[in-house]
Amino acid sequence: xxxxxxxxxxxxxxxxxxxxxxxxxxxxxxxxxxxxxxxxxxxxxxxxxxxxxxxxxxxxxxxxxxxxxxxxxxxxxxxxxxxxxxxxxxxxxxxxxxxxxxxxxxxxxxxxxxxxxxxxxxxxxxxxxxxxxxxxxxxxxxxxxxxxxxxxxxxxxxxxxxxxxxxxxxxxxxxxxxxxxxxxxxxxxxxxxxxxxxxxxxxxxxxxxxxxxxxxxxxxxxxxxxxxxxxxxxxxxxxxxxxxxxxxxxxxxxxxxxxxxxxxxxxxxxxxxxxxxxxxxxxxxxxxxxxxxxxxxxxxxxxxxxxxxxxxxxxxxxxxxxxxxxxxxxxxxxxxxxxxxxxxxxxxxxxxxxxxxxxxxxxxxxxxxxxxxxxxxxxxxxxxxxxxxxxxxxxxxxxxxxxxxxxxxxxxxxxxxxxxxxxxxxxx
Length: 428
Ligand code: HAM
Prior knowledge:
This protein has 428 residues and is of the alpha+beta class. The protein folds into two domains: 3-170 and 230-316, Bira Bifunctional Protein, Domain 2 (BirA Bifunctional Protein, domain 2, 2-Layer Sandwich), CATH 3.30.930.10; 329-421, Rossmann fold (3-Layer(aba) Sandwich). The chain contains 15 helices and 16 strands. The strands form three sheets. The protein has an eight-stranded mixed β-sheet, with helices on both faces. A five-stranded mixed β-sheet has the order 13-12-14-15-16, with helices on both faces. The longest helix has 18 residues, at 139-156. The protein starts with 18 loop residues before the first helix and ends with a helix. The mean pLDDT is 95. Bound molecules: histidyl-adenosine monophosphate (HAM).
């Protein structure tokens, strides 16, 4: 029985009280993206496995160890998306979004699935807010994407987010780098873990983000990509830094930052949370991805932010959220006629945008008032035979206790809005 009453390992429920906070945070990211001209894309939760093998790379941890891959009933191999970039690039191509002119700017707010060992900040169902921009290789675009995330962090009141920056070059300069890495790691071959040994020939850069402590120690002394950048990549990286500096953005350059996905080229970045000790998000350029997926050569870039980790960071910093108003006015009713009247009034209130409730559980008057209290209703009103006859009822301000008789006839909404505003003014 225990199994069906518990959510699967590495997943969480977002229940009322928490989900409202998520919504507010998501709105900040979405509105910041929209300010920058990004529009939402929603892609399927599963894709052909091949998309991630080619897009993310078959020597990455994500593809080698973490994907939820299965055969569907038609015998096709499908995978729950482990990240949002490959699906967004596919959707951009499939829907011809480039016909609207470059750059194509997309954002998403989505769940991703990675079979990882669950721990603080590491889930199997994680949530990402991401943006992807296609069709520009200009360094100004890199700066805009990075600045967008930082503005949203600032609007949320997140204090301790850093920016780490690096360039991992283009395939041309990376050829030399791969050679140097291979030479270095071959000299320490006997100490590498089995996965890294298998990566030595295929993709030595992936050894740099192996989680095994021994491999990490070996990787720390490995040659750095920054020493192998070609002229164009070096100039590109310098201009990204110039634009960021012009915006007043502080950053540190981390020559060891390579990111764990294969599609990256040139600029890569992460947003570490200094207090939590892990990255709240990361991203970079992927100038070869669209071509890899069968499209025309189209540069691109973006980021993915871990919403689960961002919520943790906001909690750790005690960032305050406004209390959600679940019920502004509770209409308690005594008797069937009064309940029907309350029901119709509640419906009218909803159409005017006022969160209002009446009894849905067959409660007596006392229990209704208790429930109104539990809901935190700002106002209550009791309707009974007398009130129906008179066409008026007492509106009670639950905070101050002040009461005011108002019409419950056709002009009820106006009467309520006037009285509640007046009382709010008094109680300030
Ligand atoms: P990523 O670094 O793999 O990049 O993930 C981005 C962020 O998602 C991480 O920094 C972290 O905050 C969060 N995250 C990743 N795995 C987990 C997990 N298991 N549990 C909780 N949070 C997690 C990407 O996914 C790229 N698609 C980002 C990108 C977009 N690059 C270019 N465009």
